């Protein structure tokens, strides 16, 4: 019986759909769905909460495209933060430096941010305690001293050499200046000149500077440290080895005090997402590493090579604990280096919502080291 026009159209649509099916399956597999997503330990989307109404229609979250911001990278990539927010939309914003993120927070264009301890301290002090609160930890570790092994073979060989840090007064700069002082050497904190030449260099250009020989090494976070190793560098020191319990804060979660006051339910939902993200990262390190790399690729155009991301990932610990006592130590180092005056840090933390989330999840509460909001 000849096919009618309607029958021919139906048949044509069926053929097109069948031809497209392998392509669709391949696309889903490449996005992390399919067999990988069917694992019991893969992140699940909570569709029951999709329409949950919170007090803000959107939340603007800042972070760096950096492995020490793994909680943000993975939490955003896998939707683990978004699913706790119900109908509240995330507006992610990537930053390359702490000052620009703080400026956005102060200017009202950012609500919550992942950021290092030094920018958090500086911003809190400059605003006389009125602009931000630290509401959670995010990561520890991931900072290394990488050097040219032809020029520097021991730590004593650093004297007279040019060593890069990311920025004057940033977390790594403060740590390196303190290390230099403990060696009994002298460096002017403003100019970086002295027994060691401290060269403030953006992490994006540090590998090229190292390759060209304009610096002899760098005290930098991951993945910059591992990129230097691929250019012939050698790890001379892992900063983790300098700290009690081998832990120190490298990334915090901060919030504007205005947003915290007006939308505590949204902040709590974000923290539920970060706690679940950290739990998933620690339980599934390989899948989490791939997820973070996919997010970095989306930000920068290409993923990190295995020889960079594998060692970098191993050196970072994601944690809900803000490791508050280590922030106080880093503040003391900045004072000693004469980068800042003695700060009043009382009130810089508000861990009440985090501890509420942790308690509900059956996890131990964390300490603000006596620096909590009253």
Report what the structure shows.
With 374 residues, this protein is α/β, with parallel strands linked by helices. The chain is built from 13 helices and 11 strands. The strands form 2 sheets. Strands 2-1-3-10-4-11 form a 6-stranded mixed beta sheet, with helices on both faces. A 5-stranded mixed beta sheet has the order 7-6-8-5-9, sandwiched between helices. α2 (70-77) crosses α9 and α5 (171-182) crosses α12 (324-336). Mean pLDDT is 88; it is low at 1-48.
Q: Can you give keywords for this protein?
A:
374 residues, alpha/beta, six-stranded mixed beta sheet, five-stranded mixed beta sheet, 13 helices, 11 strands, 41% helix, globular
Write the layout of secondary structure elements.
Elements (H helix, E strand, L loop, with lengths): L4 H26 L27 E6 L6 H8 L11 E6 L3 H10 L4 E4 L1 H10 L5 E10 L1 E5 L14 E4 L5 H12 L14 E4 L5 H7 L4 E5 L2 H7 L3 E5 L10 E8 H6 L1 H20 L1 H16 L5 H9 L1 E3 L5 H13 L15 H9 L14
Parallel strand pairs: 1-2, 1-3, 6-7, 6-8
Antiparallel strand pairs: 3-10, 4-10, 4-11, 5-8, 5-9
Helix pairs in contact: 2-9, 2-10, 5-12, 7-11, 9-10, 9-13
């Amino acid at each position: 019986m000849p096919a009618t026009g309607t029958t021919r159209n139906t048949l044509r649509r069926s053929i097109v759909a069948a031809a497209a099916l392998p392509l669709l399956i391949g696309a889903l597999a490449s996005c992390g769905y399919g067999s990988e997503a069917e694992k019991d330990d893969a992140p699940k989307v909570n569709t029951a909460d999709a329409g949950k109404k919170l007090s803000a229609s959107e939340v603007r979250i800042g972070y760096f495209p950096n492995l020490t911001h793994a909680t943000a990278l993975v939490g955003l990539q896998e939707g683990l933060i978004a699913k706790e927010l119900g109908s509240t939309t995330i507006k992610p914003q990537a930053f390359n430096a702490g000052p620009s993120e703080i400026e956005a927070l102060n200017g009202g264009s950012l609500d919550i941010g992942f950021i290092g301890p030094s920018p958090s301290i500086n911003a809190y002090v400059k605003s006389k305690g009125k602009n931000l609160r630290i509401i959670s930890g995010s990561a520890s570790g991931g900072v290394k001293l990488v050097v040219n092994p032809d020029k520097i073979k021991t730590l004593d060989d650093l004297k007279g050499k040019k060593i890069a840090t990311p920025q004057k007064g940033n977390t790594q700069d403060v740590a390196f200046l303190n290390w230099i002082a403990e060696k009994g050497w002298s460096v002017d904190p403003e100019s970086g000149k002295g027994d060691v030449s401290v060269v403030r260099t953006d992490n994006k250009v540090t590998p090229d500077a190292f390759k060209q020989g304009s610096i002899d090494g760098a005290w930098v976070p991951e993945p910059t440290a591992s990129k230097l190793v691929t250019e012939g560098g050698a790890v001379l020191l892992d900063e983790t080895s300098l700290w009690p319990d081998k832990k120190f804060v490298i990334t915090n979660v901060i919030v504007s005090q205005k947003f915290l006051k007006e939308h505590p339910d949204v902040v709590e939902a974000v923290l539920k997402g970060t706690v679940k993200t950290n739990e998933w990262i620690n339980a599934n390190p390989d899948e989490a590493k791939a997820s973070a790399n996919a997010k970095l690729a989306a930000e920068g155009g290409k993923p990190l090579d295995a020889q960079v991301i594998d060692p970098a990932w191993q050196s970072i610990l994601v944690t809900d604990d803000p490791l508050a006592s280590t922030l106080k130590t880093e503040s003391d180092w900045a004072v000693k280096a004469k980068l800042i005056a003695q700060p009043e840090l009382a009130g810089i933390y508000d861990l009440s919502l985090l501890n509420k989330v942790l308690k509900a999840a059956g996890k131990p509460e964390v300490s603000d080291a006596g620096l909590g909001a009253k």
